[in-house]
Amino acid sequence: MRAEAKVSLSLSLSLSPSLTSQGFKARHPATQAAPVLPPTKTKPKKKKKRKKKKKETTMTRSLIPYFLFWQLILLFAKPTLTDAAGGRWQLLQKSIGITAMHMQLLKNDRVVIFDRTDFGSSNLSLPNGQCRNDPTETALKVDCTAHSAEYDVATNTYRALFVQTDVWCSSGSVMADGRLIQTGGFNDGERRVRTFTPCAACDWQEIENGLAARRWYATNHILPDGRQIVIGGRRQFNYEFYPKTGGPSNTYSLPFLVQTNDAGIENNLYPFVFLNVDGNLFVFSNNRAVLLDYANNKILKTYPEIPGGDPRCYPSTGSAVLLPMKNLQAKFVEAEVLVCGGAPKGAYTQATKGNFVGALNTCARIKITDPNPQWVLEKMPQARVMGDMTLLPNGNVLIINGAGAGTAGWEHGRNPVLNPVIYRPENALGSRFELQNPTTIPRMYHSTAILLRDGRVLVGGSNPHIGYEFTKVLFPTELSLEAFHPSYLDAQFSNLRPQIVSPASQSNLGYGQKLAVRFSVTGTLAQNLVSVTMVAPSFTTHSFSMNQRLLVLGAEKVTNLGKSTYEVRVTTPGFENLAPSGYYLLFVVHREIPSRGTWVKIQ
Ligand SMILES: [Cu+2]
Which of 35, 318, 322, 403 has CB 3.0 to 4.6 Å from 342, enough for a Cys bridge? Predict the structure, then answer.
């Protein structure tokens, strides 16, 4: 029996039936997908069928009914807004021509999206008959299609972007000036640095040998001094900075990435990196974490292993967030990290043999600023691997996308988890998870989710294949974009929803500055339930949102200015360790219902 069972006793957790009854056997792909979907008439019949099929282990037999099932679902699904309690789904684009493997929202409300140049042709042409002529490319030497696009949220339109080298499984982060700095990739792209400036007609600029080392599956984070750190990547047990620091090699050894490298499997890629309040970095890899003083290349603290010891990083991909940081004026600000999902030990090796082990159904939470930090396990309503965790403006965490079995990697995932879950960090242990309404589109390996300024969550991607595959596969390549509307966007709350009057968009804020935020609410305002939050938009790929950060500025005083207009006074974060300089989305939240965000720059 797995070690997790022991832990579950002390925390009154129980293993899901799927794990205990089926263990390491393959599961029918539809077992997870079906029970949550709207067409109820066909449900009972399907359930019976499914029970019988549970014993089937060959993929060939299970593929056909699975396909029919999805065809039916897609037929009945309206390509518009579907209304129900617990969030709604909206199909924004059936196809943007590429798959949203990496996404970043920029300060002009446009989202930079890209996948990889070695997929072969995409379904989006480069503009003006342009072609990429690259003799080192592994797929197409001459390629007239785009592998990056810019999505304009306001108009729901997109345009092709021209990326010159392979950006496959890369990383990035937005700098203080609002430019996206993207690093690494594969083949000719492995040492590239690419910059993208937010403007109406801007395109990628590339810097050859911008990186000191090859970076593939690395993690980036913005630093308090304005630089960016790039950590790890395949066969890279070190970190570096952008811009480069100089010195002999420009790379700094990080043995922790060797120690957490499972031979032949890895589980140490795309480490979960967060900037702690003391300016050091919390670096989580595999099943444990360290506190890294990157400036002096020193490990300051070793955190305990997550109970059970199961891996949470690529390819046993879970996800993680730095929970909302609050009481920012306190002498000691606390910081907590939440890691959710992943795959049990051995799951990757099993997946390569066609056995799809049930994913982990636990989250682990730790106060990283605690002198004696301990993980606390919590059970999710569903097991999930390759999920995304997105901080919502009201401080809740959306857990979305992913699979119920298998791991990351080509063809290694099964049982799409179609229901998102909202995690309420402020609720008591045992009452934090809230199941949301399902999508109809599986979002497996290489899918993404990011917060938009209007509070929706943009969802895209999913391509578990080595190329674009639209037919005769379990999970076709997804070129679509959807939006998940958390229930705070429901029309019934419109009279409670704040609307920000000031500060104006793109306003500059200082550190530790007194700020009066003006807003209007048409209904009755509960003055004690008003709060201001600030969110740093993330670079999201492979189930991890780099640089994602939410600061609760709270509310020092709320004043009624008349005519349904109010003023809430707050103090901005005191220093760069709490909020590195750059663009944030500022929200007024009233009774958990956020306003639309307004872009502010803290500097
Ligand atoms: Cu990948």
Answer: 318
